[in-house]
Structure to design on (585 residues):
Protein backbone atom coordinates (compact mmCIF):
# COMPACT_ATOMS: atom_id res chain seq x y z
CA UNK A 1 0.00 0.00 0.00
CA UNK A 2 1.52 3.38 -0.96
CA UNK A 3 1.72 6.21 1.53
CA UNK A 4 -0.80 8.59 -0.09
CA UNK A 5 -4.15 9.59 1.33
CA UNK A 6 -6.72 6.80 1.62
CA UNK A 7 -10.38 7.76 1.67
CA UNK A 8 -12.66 5.37 3.51
CA UNK A 9 -16.38 5.73 2.98
CA UNK A 10 -19.18 4.31 5.10
CA UNK A 11 -22.86 5.20 5.02
CA UNK A 12 -23.80 4.80 8.66
CA UNK A 13 -22.23 6.05 11.85
CA UNK A 14 -22.54 2.54 13.23
CA UNK A 15 -20.39 1.04 10.47
CA UNK A 16 -17.38 3.22 11.14
CA UNK A 17 -17.90 3.91 14.84
CA UNK A 18 -14.91 1.89 16.05
CA UNK A 19 -12.59 3.28 13.39
CA UNK A 20 -13.67 6.78 14.29
CA UNK A 21 -13.02 6.16 17.98
CA UNK A 22 -9.46 5.06 17.22
CA UNK A 23 -8.73 7.96 14.92
CA UNK A 24 -6.79 11.11 15.77
CA UNK A 25 -8.93 13.72 14.02
CA UNK A 26 -7.21 16.80 12.61
CA UNK A 27 -10.08 18.21 10.63
CA UNK A 28 -13.84 17.76 10.64
CA UNK A 29 -16.06 18.85 7.78
CA UNK A 30 -19.87 18.79 7.82
CA UNK A 31 -21.38 18.38 4.40
CA UNK A 32 -24.96 17.67 5.29
CA UNK A 33 -25.94 14.86 5.60
CA UNK A 34 -22.31 13.69 5.45
CA UNK A 35 -19.45 14.02 7.88
CA UNK A 36 -15.81 13.97 6.82
CA UNK A 37 -12.93 13.41 9.24
CA UNK A 38 -9.33 13.86 8.18
CA UNK A 39 -6.64 12.57 10.49
CA UNK A 40 -4.46 9.66 11.52
CA UNK A 41 -5.52 6.04 11.85
CA UNK A 42 -3.01 3.29 12.38
CA UNK A 43 -0.29 5.86 11.69
CA UNK A 44 -1.71 6.53 8.22
CA UNK A 45 -3.34 9.67 7.02
CA UNK A 46 -6.90 8.85 6.12
CA UNK A 47 -10.10 10.58 5.23
CA UNK A 48 -12.96 8.84 7.02
CA UNK A 49 -16.34 9.68 5.57
CA UNK A 50 -19.83 9.00 6.81
CA UNK A 51 -21.94 9.68 3.73
CA UNK A 52 -25.46 9.02 4.98
CA UNK A 53 -27.85 6.44 3.60
CA UNK A 54 -28.50 5.91 -0.07
CA UNK A 55 -26.90 6.50 -3.43
CA UNK A 56 -27.51 10.25 -3.80
CA UNK A 57 -25.74 10.98 -0.50
CA UNK A 58 -22.84 8.70 -1.42
CA UNK A 59 -22.54 10.21 -4.93
CA UNK A 60 -22.41 13.74 -3.64
CA UNK A 61 -19.93 12.94 -0.90
CA UNK A 62 -17.59 10.95 -3.15
CA UNK A 63 -17.58 13.71 -5.77
CA UNK A 64 -16.80 16.33 -3.16
CA UNK A 65 -13.99 14.29 -1.56
CA UNK A 66 -12.38 13.40 -4.87
CA UNK A 67 -12.48 17.04 -5.97
CA UNK A 68 -11.16 18.51 -2.72
CA UNK A 69 -8.86 15.86 -1.30
CA UNK A 70 -7.75 13.86 -4.36
CA UNK A 71 -7.09 10.62 -2.43
CA UNK A 72 -4.84 8.02 -3.98
CA UNK A 73 -7.43 5.31 -3.51
CA UNK A 74 -10.88 4.87 -2.08
CA UNK A 75 -12.35 2.13 0.03
CA UNK A 76 -16.04 1.67 0.66
CA UNK A 77 -16.89 -0.31 3.77
CA UNK A 78 -20.14 -0.99 5.53
CA UNK A 79 -22.91 -3.43 6.13
CA UNK A 80 -24.53 -5.68 3.57
CA UNK A 81 -27.32 -8.22 3.51
CA UNK A 82 -26.47 -11.79 2.58
CA UNK A 83 -28.24 -13.28 -0.43
CA UNK A 84 -26.87 -16.78 -0.20
CA UNK A 85 -27.06 -19.28 2.64
CA UNK A 86 -23.32 -19.59 3.09
CA UNK A 87 -22.63 -16.03 4.21
CA UNK A 88 -22.83 -15.47 7.98
CA UNK A 89 -22.89 -12.34 10.12
CA UNK A 90 -19.48 -10.67 10.06
CA UNK A 91 -18.28 -12.42 6.88
CA UNK A 92 -16.64 -9.99 4.50
CA UNK A 93 -17.45 -9.70 0.86
CA UNK A 94 -14.81 -8.26 -1.46
CA UNK A 95 -16.78 -7.07 -4.46
CA UNK A 96 -15.53 -8.38 -7.79
CA UNK A 97 -18.17 -6.20 -9.35
CA UNK A 98 -21.06 -4.03 -8.22
CA UNK A 99 -24.38 -3.98 -10.07
CA UNK A 100 -26.87 -1.19 -9.68
CA UNK A 101 -30.24 -2.96 -9.51
CA UNK A 102 -32.20 0.05 -10.74
CA UNK A 103 -30.13 0.91 -13.81
CA UNK A 104 -28.59 -2.49 -14.47
CA UNK A 105 -25.15 -0.85 -14.78
CA UNK A 106 -22.26 -3.02 -13.72
CA UNK A 107 -18.99 -1.68 -12.29
CA UNK A 108 -16.04 -4.07 -12.26
CA UNK A 109 -13.67 -3.90 -9.32
CA UNK A 110 -10.05 -2.82 -9.54
CA UNK A 111 -8.34 -6.20 -9.69
CA UNK A 112 -5.17 -5.09 -7.96
CA UNK A 113 -7.00 -3.62 -4.99
CA UNK A 114 -9.35 -6.62 -4.80
CA UNK A 115 -6.37 -8.97 -4.80
CA UNK A 116 -4.75 -6.93 -2.05
CA UNK A 117 -7.95 -7.03 -0.03
CA UNK A 118 -8.19 -10.77 -0.49
CA UNK A 119 -4.57 -11.32 0.55
CA UNK A 120 -4.97 -9.16 3.63
CA UNK A 121 -8.05 -11.07 4.72
CA UNK A 122 -6.21 -14.35 4.27
CA UNK A 123 -3.22 -13.08 6.26
CA UNK A 124 -5.40 -11.81 9.11
CA UNK A 125 -7.65 -14.87 9.15
CA UNK A 126 -10.72 -12.82 8.24
CA UNK A 127 -13.46 -14.87 6.58
CA UNK A 128 -13.98 -13.23 3.22
CA UNK A 129 -15.51 -14.16 -0.09
CA UNK A 130 -14.96 -12.52 -3.44
CA UNK A 131 -18.11 -12.09 -5.41
CA UNK A 132 -20.74 -9.82 -6.83
CA UNK A 133 -22.50 -7.11 -4.89
CA UNK A 134 -25.81 -5.50 -5.86
CA UNK A 135 -26.98 -2.03 -4.83
CA UNK A 136 -30.69 -1.50 -4.33
CA UNK A 137 -32.76 1.63 -3.84
CA UNK A 138 -34.67 0.52 -0.77
CA UNK A 139 -34.19 -1.93 2.06
CA UNK A 140 -34.67 -5.58 1.09
CA UNK A 141 -35.43 -7.39 4.29
CA UNK A 142 -37.13 -10.71 3.58
CA UNK A 143 -34.98 -13.81 3.02
CA UNK A 144 -36.71 -14.73 -0.23
CA UNK A 145 -36.47 -11.27 -1.67
CA UNK A 146 -32.78 -11.12 -0.75
CA UNK A 147 -32.25 -14.49 -2.44
CA UNK A 148 -34.20 -13.34 -5.48
CA UNK A 149 -32.24 -10.10 -5.87
CA UNK A 150 -29.02 -12.03 -5.39
CA UNK A 151 -29.86 -14.56 -8.07
CA UNK A 152 -31.09 -11.87 -10.46
CA UNK A 153 -27.76 -10.05 -10.29
CA UNK A 154 -25.32 -12.88 -9.48
CA UNK A 155 -24.58 -11.22 -6.18
CA UNK A 156 -23.64 -12.65 -2.81
CA UNK A 157 -24.72 -9.54 -0.93
CA UNK A 158 -26.91 -6.42 -1.13
CA UNK A 159 -26.22 -2.88 -0.05
CA UNK A 160 -27.59 0.59 -0.75
CA UNK A 161 -24.62 2.76 -1.72
CA UNK A 162 -21.69 0.98 -3.32
CA UNK A 163 -22.77 1.31 -6.97
CA UNK A 164 -22.79 5.09 -6.52
CA UNK A 165 -19.36 4.92 -4.93
CA UNK A 166 -17.97 2.82 -7.78
CA UNK A 167 -19.55 5.00 -10.46
CA UNK A 168 -18.15 8.26 -9.10
CA UNK A 169 -14.67 6.82 -8.49
CA UNK A 170 -14.63 5.36 -12.00
CA UNK A 171 -15.68 8.72 -13.45
CA UNK A 172 -12.76 10.38 -11.67
CA UNK A 173 -10.32 7.59 -12.53
CA UNK A 174 -9.59 6.91 -8.85
CA UNK A 175 -8.81 3.29 -7.96
CA UNK A 176 -11.39 1.92 -5.57
CA UNK A 177 -12.59 -1.23 -3.90
CA UNK A 178 -15.69 -2.22 -1.93
CA UNK A 179 -15.41 -4.48 1.10
CA UNK A 180 -18.58 -5.00 3.09
CA UNK A 181 -19.46 -7.09 6.10
CA UNK A 182 -22.65 -9.13 6.35
CA UNK A 183 -25.04 -7.62 8.88
CA UNK A 184 -28.15 -9.62 8.06
CA UNK A 185 -27.47 -13.14 6.73
CA UNK A 186 -30.07 -14.59 4.41
CA UNK A 187 -32.38 -15.86 7.12
CA UNK A 188 -32.36 -12.71 9.25
CA UNK A 189 -35.27 -10.40 8.58
CA UNK A 190 -34.40 -6.75 9.02
CA UNK A 191 -37.08 -4.85 10.94
CA UNK A 192 -38.19 -1.63 9.30
CA UNK A 193 -35.91 0.97 10.84
CA UNK A 194 -36.79 3.97 8.70
CA UNK A 195 -37.84 5.92 11.78
CA UNK A 196 -34.65 5.08 13.70
CA UNK A 197 -31.81 5.95 11.35
CA UNK A 198 -31.66 9.48 10.05
CA UNK A 199 -30.70 10.50 6.51
CA UNK A 200 -27.29 11.33 7.93
CA UNK A 201 -26.80 7.68 8.93
CA UNK A 202 -26.99 8.44 12.64
CA UNK A 203 -29.11 6.53 15.11
CA UNK A 204 -30.20 8.05 18.40
CA UNK A 205 -31.31 6.43 21.61
CA UNK A 206 -34.46 8.49 21.53
CA UNK A 207 -35.44 7.24 18.07
CA UNK A 208 -34.75 3.65 19.08
CA UNK A 209 -36.85 4.01 22.22
CA UNK A 210 -39.66 5.58 20.22
CA UNK A 211 -39.55 2.80 17.67
CA UNK A 212 -39.71 0.09 20.32
CA UNK A 213 -42.58 1.85 22.04
CA UNK A 214 -44.59 1.68 18.82
CA UNK A 215 -43.26 -1.70 17.70
CA UNK A 216 -42.55 -3.78 20.83
CA UNK A 217 -42.25 -6.97 18.79
CA UNK A 218 -39.05 -5.60 17.25
CA UNK A 219 -37.25 -5.83 20.61
CA UNK A 220 -36.03 -9.36 19.98
CA UNK A 221 -35.23 -8.62 16.36
CA UNK A 222 -33.17 -5.56 17.31
CA UNK A 223 -31.28 -7.59 19.88
CA UNK A 224 -30.36 -10.11 17.18
CA UNK A 225 -29.44 -7.36 14.72
CA UNK A 226 -27.19 -5.71 17.30
CA UNK A 227 -25.40 -9.03 17.84
CA UNK A 228 -24.84 -9.30 14.07
CA UNK A 229 -23.79 -5.64 13.91
CA UNK A 230 -21.10 -6.21 16.52
CA UNK A 231 -19.59 -8.97 14.42
CA UNK A 232 -19.88 -6.95 11.23
CA UNK A 233 -18.40 -3.83 12.79
CA UNK A 234 -15.46 -5.74 14.25
CA UNK A 235 -14.77 -7.37 10.89
CA UNK A 236 -14.86 -4.00 9.13
CA UNK A 237 -12.49 -2.49 11.70
CA UNK A 238 -10.03 -5.37 11.51
CA UNK A 239 -10.01 -5.13 7.76
CA UNK A 240 -9.47 -1.39 7.75
CA UNK A 241 -6.63 -1.79 10.25
CA UNK A 242 -5.01 -4.29 7.89
CA UNK A 243 -5.71 -2.06 4.88
CA UNK A 244 -4.01 0.94 6.46
CA UNK A 245 -1.02 -0.89 7.97
CA UNK B 1 -44.75 -26.84 -34.56
CA UNK B 2 -44.85 -29.53 -31.89
CA UNK B 3 -41.43 -30.90 -31.00
CA UNK B 4 -41.07 -34.57 -31.84
CA UNK B 5 -41.81 -36.92 -28.95
CA UNK B 6 -39.24 -39.60 -28.24
CA UNK B 7 -40.35 -43.17 -28.97
CA UNK B 8 -40.84 -44.04 -25.33
CA UNK B 9 -42.63 -42.00 -22.72
CA UNK B 10 -39.78 -42.18 -20.23
CA UNK B 11 -36.04 -42.37 -20.80
CA UNK B 12 -35.70 -46.15 -21.24
CA UNK B 13 -32.64 -46.62 -19.07
CA UNK B 14 -34.31 -44.84 -16.16
CA UNK B 15 -37.35 -47.10 -16.41
CA UNK B 16 -35.18 -50.24 -16.43
CA UNK B 17 -33.11 -49.04 -13.48
CA UNK B 18 -36.17 -48.45 -11.33
CA UNK B 19 -37.84 -51.68 -12.40
CA UNK B 20 -34.71 -53.68 -11.51
CA UNK B 21 -34.58 -52.04 -8.08
CA UNK B 22 -38.20 -52.87 -7.32
CA UNK B 23 -37.68 -56.42 -8.48
CA UNK B 24 -34.60 -56.82 -6.22
CA UNK B 25 -36.45 -55.50 -3.18
CA UNK B 26 -39.42 -57.78 -3.78
CA UNK B 27 -37.20 -60.83 -4.30
CA UNK B 28 -35.51 -59.96 -1.00
CA UNK B 29 -39.03 -59.82 0.49
CA UNK B 30 -38.53 -56.34 1.91
CA UNK B 31 -41.77 -55.03 3.36
CA UNK B 32 -40.93 -51.37 2.97
CA UNK B 33 -38.43 -49.67 0.71
CA UNK B 34 -38.34 -46.16 -0.68
CA UNK B 35 -38.52 -45.49 -4.38
CA UNK B 36 -37.58 -41.84 -4.15
CA UNK B 37 -35.33 -39.87 -1.84
CA UNK B 38 -36.48 -36.26 -1.55
CA UNK B 39 -33.15 -34.63 -0.79
CA UNK B 40 -33.40 -31.06 0.51
CA UNK B 41 -29.84 -29.72 0.82
CA UNK B 42 -31.20 -26.32 1.84
CA UNK B 43 -34.47 -24.48 2.43
CA UNK B 44 -33.36 -21.07 1.19
CA UNK B 45 -35.51 -20.01 -1.72
CA UNK B 46 -35.80 -17.00 -3.96
CA UNK B 47 -39.59 -17.21 -4.22
CA UNK B 48 -42.46 -17.30 -1.71
CA UNK B 49 -45.00 -19.51 -3.47
CA UNK B 50 -48.46 -19.30 -1.91
CA UNK B 51 -48.93 -23.03 -1.44
CA UNK B 52 -45.46 -23.89 -0.19
CA UNK B 53 -45.32 -25.25 3.31
CA UNK B 54 -41.58 -25.90 3.26
CA UNK B 55 -40.31 -22.32 3.36
CA UNK B 56 -42.68 -21.57 6.19
CA UNK B 57 -42.08 -24.72 8.23
CA UNK B 58 -38.30 -24.38 7.98
CA UNK B 59 -38.09 -20.59 8.18
CA UNK B 60 -35.74 -20.91 11.17
CA UNK B 61 -33.14 -22.83 9.16
CA UNK B 62 -33.04 -20.79 5.97
CA UNK B 63 -29.31 -20.15 6.16
CA UNK B 64 -28.43 -23.73 7.05
CA UNK B 65 -27.31 -26.23 4.47
CA UNK B 66 -26.66 -29.95 4.53
CA UNK B 67 -23.00 -30.68 3.95
CA UNK B 68 -22.24 -32.39 0.67
CA UNK B 69 -20.86 -35.42 2.50
CA UNK B 70 -24.07 -35.74 4.53
CA UNK B 71 -26.20 -35.48 1.40
CA UNK B 72 -24.25 -38.33 -0.19
CA UNK B 73 -24.38 -40.37 3.00
CA UNK B 74 -28.17 -40.03 2.93
CA UNK B 75 -28.26 -41.20 -0.69
CA UNK B 76 -26.17 -44.24 0.20
CA UNK B 77 -28.08 -45.04 3.38
CA UNK B 78 -31.45 -44.87 1.72
CA UNK B 79 -30.64 -46.74 -1.50
CA UNK B 80 -33.65 -45.35 -3.40
CA UNK B 81 -33.12 -45.55 -7.17
CA UNK B 82 -34.46 -42.03 -7.69
CA UNK B 83 -33.18 -38.92 -5.94
CA UNK B 84 -35.23 -35.77 -6.22
CA UNK B 85 -33.03 -32.82 -5.26
CA UNK B 86 -35.40 -30.16 -4.00
CA UNK B 87 -35.62 -27.58 -1.22
CA UNK B 88 -35.89 -24.53 -1.05
CA UNK B 89 -34.35 -23.82 -4.41
CA UNK B 90 -31.53 -26.33 -4.99
CA UNK B 91 -29.79 -24.13 -7.55
CA UNK B 92 -28.89 -21.88 -4.60
CA UNK B 93 -26.87 -24.74 -3.08
CA UNK B 94 -23.21 -23.86 -3.65
CA UNK B 95 -22.20 -27.48 -4.36
CA UNK B 96 -25.14 -28.41 -6.55
CA UNK B 97 -22.86 -29.37 -9.44
CA UNK B 98 -20.81 -31.80 -7.35
CA UNK B 99 -23.87 -33.13 -5.55
CA UNK B 100 -25.61 -33.93 -8.82
CA UNK B 101 -22.61 -35.55 -10.45
CA UNK B 102 -21.83 -37.67 -7.37
CA UNK B 103 -25.41 -38.95 -7.22
CA UNK B 104 -25.35 -39.76 -10.94
CA UNK B 105 -22.05 -41.56 -10.44
CA UNK B 106 -23.87 -43.76 -7.95
CA UNK B 107 -26.23 -44.88 -10.70
CA UNK B 108 -29.26 -43.05 -9.38
CA UNK B 109 -31.88 -41.27 -11.45
CA UNK B 110 -31.80 -37.60 -10.50
CA UNK B 111 -34.62 -35.08 -10.71
CA UNK B 112 -33.36 -31.59 -9.98
CA UNK B 113 -36.52 -29.73 -8.94
CA UNK B 114 -36.32 -26.03 -9.54
CA UNK B 115 -38.54 -22.98 -9.79
CA UNK B 116 -36.60 -22.17 -12.94
CA UNK B 117 -35.71 -18.60 -11.96
CA UNK B 118 -31.97 -19.15 -12.35
CA UNK B 119 -32.05 -22.30 -14.47
CA UNK B 120 -30.77 -20.65 -17.62
CA UNK B 121 -27.89 -19.00 -15.73
CA UNK B 122 -26.85 -22.21 -14.02
CA UNK B 123 -27.14 -24.60 -16.98
CA UNK B 124 -23.41 -24.53 -17.62
CA UNK B 125 -22.91 -26.33 -14.29
CA UNK B 126 -24.54 -29.47 -15.69
CA UNK B 127 -24.15 -31.89 -18.57
CA UNK B 128 -26.96 -33.91 -20.14
CA UNK B 129 -26.97 -37.46 -18.81
CA UNK B 130 -29.35 -40.36 -19.45
CA UNK B 131 -30.28 -40.45 -15.76
CA UNK B 132 -30.58 -36.69 -15.21
CA UNK B 133 -33.79 -34.65 -15.43
CA UNK B 134 -34.62 -31.06 -14.67
CA UNK B 135 -38.06 -30.79 -13.11
CA UNK B 136 -39.39 -27.25 -13.39
CA UNK B 137 -42.30 -26.09 -11.29
CA UNK B 138 -44.98 -24.41 -13.44
CA UNK B 139 -48.44 -23.98 -11.94
CA UNK B 140 -50.35 -22.42 -14.78
CA UNK B 141 -50.07 -20.03 -17.69
CA UNK B 142 -48.29 -16.75 -17.20
CA UNK B 143 -50.74 -14.77 -15.10
CA UNK B 144 -51.78 -17.68 -12.90
CA UNK B 145 -48.26 -18.91 -12.33
CA UNK B 146 -46.95 -15.46 -11.42
CA UNK B 147 -49.79 -15.00 -8.93
CA UNK B 148 -49.23 -18.39 -7.31
CA UNK B 149 -45.48 -17.90 -6.97
CA UNK B 150 -46.00 -14.25 -5.99
CA UNK B 151 -43.48 -12.89 -8.48
CA UNK B 152 -44.20 -11.09 -11.73
CA UNK B 153 -42.09 -12.44 -14.55
CA UNK B 154 -41.51 -15.81 -12.91
CA UNK B 155 -43.35 -17.73 -15.62
CA UNK B 156 -41.30 -16.15 -18.40
CA UNK B 157 -38.08 -16.96 -16.58
CA UNK B 158 -39.09 -20.54 -15.91
CA UNK B 159 -40.12 -21.12 -19.54
CA UNK B 160 -36.91 -19.47 -20.68
CA UNK B 161 -34.99 -21.91 -18.51
CA UNK B 162 -36.98 -24.86 -19.87
CA UNK B 163 -36.30 -23.87 -23.48
CA UNK B 164 -32.62 -23.26 -22.83
CA UNK B 165 -32.26 -26.63 -21.12
CA UNK B 166 -34.06 -28.46 -23.92
CA UNK B 167 -31.90 -26.71 -26.51
CA UNK B 168 -28.81 -28.01 -24.73
CA UNK B 169 -30.07 -31.57 -24.80
CA UNK B 170 -31.28 -31.97 -21.22
CA UNK B 171 -34.31 -34.05 -20.29
CA UNK B 172 -36.85 -31.62 -18.88
CA UNK B 173 -40.13 -32.30 -17.19
CA UNK B 174 -42.49 -29.93 -15.43
CA UNK B 175 -44.51 -30.23 -12.26
CA UNK B 176 -47.90 -28.54 -11.98
CA UNK B 177 -49.66 -28.26 -8.64
CA UNK B 178 -53.42 -27.92 -8.94
CA UNK B 179 -55.19 -25.64 -6.47
CA UNK B 180 -58.80 -24.70 -5.89
CA UNK B 181 -58.45 -21.70 -8.15
CA UNK B 182 -56.77 -23.66 -10.93
CA UNK B 183 -58.88 -23.72 -14.05
CA UNK B 184 -58.99 -27.16 -15.76
CA UNK B 185 -59.12 -25.53 -19.17
CA UNK B 186 -56.02 -23.56 -18.29
CA UNK B 187 -54.23 -26.75 -17.27
CA UNK B 188 -55.16 -28.27 -20.61
CA UNK B 189 -53.84 -25.15 -22.35
CA UNK B 190 -50.66 -25.37 -20.30
CA UNK B 191 -50.20 -29.02 -21.26
CA UNK B 192 -50.63 -27.99 -24.89
CA UNK B 193 -48.13 -25.17 -24.55
CA UNK B 194 -45.53 -27.30 -22.78
CA UNK B 195 -45.98 -30.02 -25.39
CA UNK B 196 -45.44 -27.46 -28.12
CA UNK B 197 -42.23 -26.27 -26.41
CA UNK B 198 -41.05 -29.87 -26.32
CA UNK B 199 -40.82 -30.80 -22.64
CA UNK B 200 -40.23 -34.48 -22.18
CA UNK B 201 -42.80 -34.95 -19.46
CA UNK B 202 -45.51 -33.22 -17.44
CA UNK B 203 -46.39 -34.13 -13.86
CA UNK B 204 -49.68 -33.13 -12.25
CA UNK B 205 -50.69 -33.26 -8.61
CA UNK B 206 -53.16 -31.58 -6.32
CA UNK B 207 -51.59 -29.38 -3.64
CA UNK B 208 -51.30 -30.42 -0.01
CA UNK B 209 -52.98 -28.32 2.68
CA UNK B 210 -49.87 -27.51 4.71
CA UNK B 211 -50.87 -26.23 8.11
CA UNK B 212 -48.20 -23.49 7.92
CA UNK B 213 -49.80 -21.90 4.87
CA UNK B 214 -52.02 -19.02 6.00
CA UNK B 215 -54.49 -19.14 3.16
CA UNK B 216 -56.03 -22.61 3.39
CA UNK B 217 -58.72 -21.65 0.89
CA UNK B 218 -56.38 -22.54 -2.00
CA UNK B 219 -56.45 -26.25 -1.20
CA UNK B 220 -58.92 -28.81 -2.53
CA UNK B 221 -61.04 -31.39 -0.75
CA UNK B 222 -61.10 -34.91 -2.18
CA UNK B 223 -64.40 -34.29 -3.95
CA UNK B 224 -63.05 -31.11 -5.45
CA UNK B 225 -59.94 -32.96 -6.62
CA UNK B 226 -62.09 -35.57 -8.37
CA UNK B 227 -64.08 -32.90 -10.14
CA UNK B 228 -60.99 -30.90 -11.13
CA UNK B 229 -59.05 -33.85 -12.53
CA UNK B 230 -62.01 -35.31 -14.42
CA UNK B 231 -62.27 -31.97 -16.16
CA UNK B 232 -58.51 -31.82 -16.82
CA UNK B 233 -58.57 -35.29 -18.37
CA UNK B 234 -61.46 -34.53 -20.70
CA UNK B 235 -59.16 -34.15 -23.69
CA UNK B 236 -57.24 -37.33 -22.96
CA UNK B 237 -54.02 -38.03 -21.10
CA UNK B 238 -51.67 -36.36 -23.52
CA UNK B 239 -48.57 -38.05 -24.82
CA UNK B 240 -46.24 -36.13 -22.55
CA UNK B 241 -48.02 -36.73 -19.27
CA UNK B 242 -45.69 -38.51 -16.87
CA UNK B 243 -48.27 -38.85 -14.12
CA UNK B 244 -49.39 -42.47 -14.44
CA UNK B 245 -52.88 -43.23 -15.76
CA UNK B 246 -53.63 -45.22 -12.61
CA UNK B 247 -52.73 -42.23 -10.43
CA UNK B 248 -54.83 -39.99 -12.64
CA UNK B 249 -57.70 -42.50 -12.26
CA UNK B 250 -57.26 -42.15 -8.50
CA UNK B 251 -57.36 -38.36 -8.77
CA UNK B 252 -60.52 -38.61 -10.85
CA UNK B 253 -62.21 -40.78 -8.22
CA UNK B 254 -62.16 -43.87 -10.41
CA UNK B 255 -60.12 -46.03 -8.07
CA UNK B 256 -58.99 -46.14 -4.46
CA UNK B 257 -55.44 -46.25 -3.23
CA UNK B 258 -53.90 -46.19 0.18
CA UNK B 259 -50.86 -44.03 0.75
CA UNK B 260 -47.29 -45.37 0.79
CA UNK B 261 -45.64 -42.72 2.97
CA UNK B 262 -42.29 -44.57 3.06
CA UNK B 263 -42.27 -44.70 -0.75
CA UNK B 264 -40.85 -41.18 -0.88
CA UNK B 265 -38.56 -40.43 2.07
CA UNK B 266 -37.21 -36.96 2.86
CA UNK B 267 -33.80 -35.90 4.19
CA UNK B 268 -32.94 -32.33 5.13
CA UNK B 269 -30.96 -30.22 7.57
CA UNK B 270 -32.91 -31.59 10.51
CA UNK B 271 -32.50 -35.22 9.48
CA UNK B 272 -34.87 -37.88 8.15
CA UNK B 273 -38.33 -36.32 8.15
CA UNK B 274 -41.15 -38.44 9.49
CA UNK B 275 -43.58 -39.69 8.46
CA UNK B 276 -43.57 -38.30 4.93
CA UNK B 277 -42.75 -35.45 2.55
CA UNK B 278 -45.82 -33.48 3.60
CA UNK B 279 -46.35 -34.05 7.32
CA UNK B 280 -43.73 -33.55 10.02
CA UNK B 281 -44.02 -35.40 13.30
CA UNK B 282 -40.28 -35.37 13.85
CA UNK B 283 -36.90 -36.07 12.38
CA UNK B 284 -34.67 -39.11 12.78
CA UNK B 285 -30.90 -39.19 12.80
CA UNK B 286 -30.58 -42.24 10.52
CA UNK B 287 -32.56 -43.83 7.73
CA UNK B 288 -32.70 -47.05 9.68
CA UNK B 289 -34.28 -45.32 12.65
CA UNK B 290 -36.85 -43.69 10.36
CA UNK B 291 -37.93 -46.96 8.78
CA UNK B 292 -37.94 -48.83 12.07
CA UNK B 293 -39.54 -46.35 14.43
CA UNK B 294 -42.30 -44.69 12.46
CA UNK B 295 -45.70 -46.29 12.97
CA UNK B 296 -46.49 -46.36 9.29
CA UNK B 297 -49.91 -47.98 9.74
CA UNK B 298 -51.14 -44.80 11.51
CA UNK B 299 -50.92 -42.74 8.36
CA UNK B 300 -53.19 -42.51 5.37
CA UNK B 301 -56.45 -40.86 4.32
CA UNK B 302 -58.66 -42.88 6.62
CA UNK B 303 -56.30 -42.94 9.54
CA UNK B 304 -54.84 -39.50 10.18
CA UNK B 305 -56.86 -36.29 10.04
CA UNK B 306 -54.01 -34.56 8.24
CA UNK B 307 -54.16 -37.13 5.44
CA UNK B 308 -57.88 -36.71 4.88
CA UNK B 309 -57.70 -34.70 1.65
CA UNK B 310 -54.17 -35.65 0.64
CA UNK B 311 -53.82 -37.11 -2.82
CA UNK B 312 -50.33 -35.85 -3.59
CA UNK B 313 -48.22 -37.91 -5.93
CA UNK B 314 -45.39 -38.39 -3.43
CA UNK B 315 -47.43 -40.95 -1.49
CA UNK B 316 -49.74 -42.35 -4.15
CA UNK B 317 -47.57 -42.77 -7.23
CA UNK B 318 -45.40 -44.95 -5.00
CA UNK B 319 -48.49 -47.09 -4.34
CA UNK B 320 -49.10 -47.33 -8.08
CA UNK B 321 -45.51 -48.41 -8.72
CA UNK B 322 -45.58 -51.08 -6.02
CA UNK B 323 -49.04 -52.54 -6.59
CA UNK B 324 -49.43 -52.47 -10.38
CA UNK B 325 -48.09 -55.99 -10.66
CA UNK B 326 -50.96 -57.26 -8.49
CA UNK B 327 -53.38 -56.90 -11.41
CA UNK B 328 -52.58 -58.19 -14.89
CA UNK B 329 -54.92 -55.65 -16.43
CA UNK B 330 -53.20 -52.77 -14.62
CA UNK B 331 -49.76 -54.17 -15.43
CA UNK B 332 -50.57 -54.36 -19.14
CA UNK B 333 -52.08 -50.91 -19.12
CA UNK B 334 -49.01 -49.48 -17.41
CA UNK B 335 -46.64 -51.34 -19.73
CA UNK B 336 -48.45 -50.00 -22.77
CA UNK B 337 -48.46 -46.52 -21.28
CA UNK B 338 -44.75 -46.63 -20.43
CA UNK B 339 -43.49 -48.18 -23.61
CA UNK B 340 -45.71 -46.57 -26.27
Amino acid sequence: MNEGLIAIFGALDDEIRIIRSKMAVDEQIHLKPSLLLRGQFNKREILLVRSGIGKPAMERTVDWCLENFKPDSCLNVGYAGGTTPHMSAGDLIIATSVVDAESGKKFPANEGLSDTAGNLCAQKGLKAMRGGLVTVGKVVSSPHEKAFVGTEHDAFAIDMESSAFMERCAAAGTPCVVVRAILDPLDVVLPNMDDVIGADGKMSFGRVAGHLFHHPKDTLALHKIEYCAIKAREAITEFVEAWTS
Amino acid sequence: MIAKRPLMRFPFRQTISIARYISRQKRAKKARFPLVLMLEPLHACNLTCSGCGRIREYSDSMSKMVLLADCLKAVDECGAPVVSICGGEPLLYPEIEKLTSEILNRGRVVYLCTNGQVLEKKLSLFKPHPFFNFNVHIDGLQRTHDIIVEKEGAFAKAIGGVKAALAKGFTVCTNTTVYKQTSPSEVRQLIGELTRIGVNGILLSPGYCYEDVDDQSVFLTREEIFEKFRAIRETGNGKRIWSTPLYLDFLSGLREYDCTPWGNVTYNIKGWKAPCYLITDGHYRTFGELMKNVEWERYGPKKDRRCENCMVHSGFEATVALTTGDSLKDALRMARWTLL
About this structure: Chain B has a mean pLDDT of 90. The domain at 12-339 of chain B is CATH 3.20.20.70 (TIM Barrel).
